[in-house]
Design goal:
The complex is a heterodimer.
Chain A: H1 4-26, H2 32-37, H3 48-68, H4 80-96, H5 101-110, H6 114-137
Chain B: H1 2-19, H2 25-32, H3 41-60, H4 82-98, H5 102-109, H6 114-131
Classes of the chains: A mainly alpha, B mainly alpha.
Chain lengths: ~140, ~150
């Protein structure tokens, strides 16, 4: 097993390459909140099939991967209020801010978009403050 | 062909999130926990992803259109406004509360944990609330003045 940071770097390169495939192939930004968010709207986007297939790709890999590898342990809170508040905030915030960790964090920063750099610094700051506040309160 | 590209991109994206362990919310929380036992893993993931995505942008720059149709997206022209900053701030709070953002949420759904399912339902509800205009930034905060 590789050290964590090597796996992180390899995984990161895979994620970045995936955004490159979508950009160079289809001229689209691989922002997950946008790809998913536009499927939940009044009108069906013209490229809904492509969006659905991207999401399908995300969903499919664990089944293939874990057929050959051991299932990793993931640790997530089991507090219902936290899960609901967190989900709502991620959903509302990513639509209002026009992006999330993938759209702004990876794609936007990679092209040195001022909007994405500001967005990333903002959500990193509130994320750090939120974790610190939760640690303080619990 | 565009459909195949979209699927391939989703598959590789998902693989990357699993290999880097970013599907694990505890990892993300540990990265954000700078005053505690800080885990820098997420920074390596971001670094690798941004490096690879930069190469794609460099290849894309001189091109007008993508290989399978569609324009290469131009640099956004909107200013940095309150909507961008407020939205990103709200997003960061949710990210810190649970340690999940949209990409890892979808991948982790396939692990069959009820917690992830609850998070995704709330996230999609949040997206719908905003998309359908049921939640928006109050008008007095929506000035077009640059922040």
């Amino acid at each position: 097993m590789n050290p964590d940071w090597i796996n992180a770097l390899i995984g990161g390169l895979m994620i970045g390459t995936a955004t490159g495939i979508l950009l160079l192939g289809n001229g689209r930004i691989a922002g997950v909140s946008d790809i998913l968010g536009r499927l939940i709207a009044r009108s069906k986007p013209s490229d809904w099939a492509e969006r659905t297939l991207f999401i399908g790709g995300l969903l499919a890999v664990p089944f293939v991967y874990y057929a050959a590898n051991s299932v990793p342990e993931i640790t997530v809170t089991n507090s219902l209020p936290l899960l609901i508040a967190g989900g709502l905030a991620v959903g509302i915030g990513s639509r209002m801010g026009s992006g999330c960790t993938s759209g702004h964090g990876v794609c936007g920063n990679a092209r040195l978009s001022k909007r994405s750099i500001i967005a990333t610094l903002t959500f990193l700051t509130t994320g750090v403050l939120t974790v610190a506040a939760l640690n303080f309160l619990t | 062909m565009r459909k195949l590209t979209a699927l391939a991109s989703g598959l590789l994206f998902s693989f990357g999130l699993i290999v880097s362990d970013m599907v694990n919310p505890a990892r993300v929380i540990a990265f954000l926990d700078v005053t505690g036992d800080w885990d820098p893993t997420l920074a390596f993931v971001m670094g690798g992803a941004i490096a690879a995505a930069s190469v794609a942008w460099i290849i894309a720059r001189p091109r007008k259109s993508a290989y399978f149709g569609g324009a290469i997206p131009p640099m956004p022209t909107q200013p940095v406004d309150r909507k961008l900053v407020t939205g990103s701030a709200i997003f960061g709070i949710g990210w810190g509360l649970v340690g999940i953002c949209p990409g890892p949420a979808i991948v982790a759904l396939s692990f069959g944990k009820w917690e992830i399912a609850v998070f995704i339902i709330a996230m999609m509800a949040g997206m719908a609330l905003y998309n359908f205009g049921l939640i928006k930034l109050p008008d007095r905060l929506r000035s077009t003045v640059k922040v």
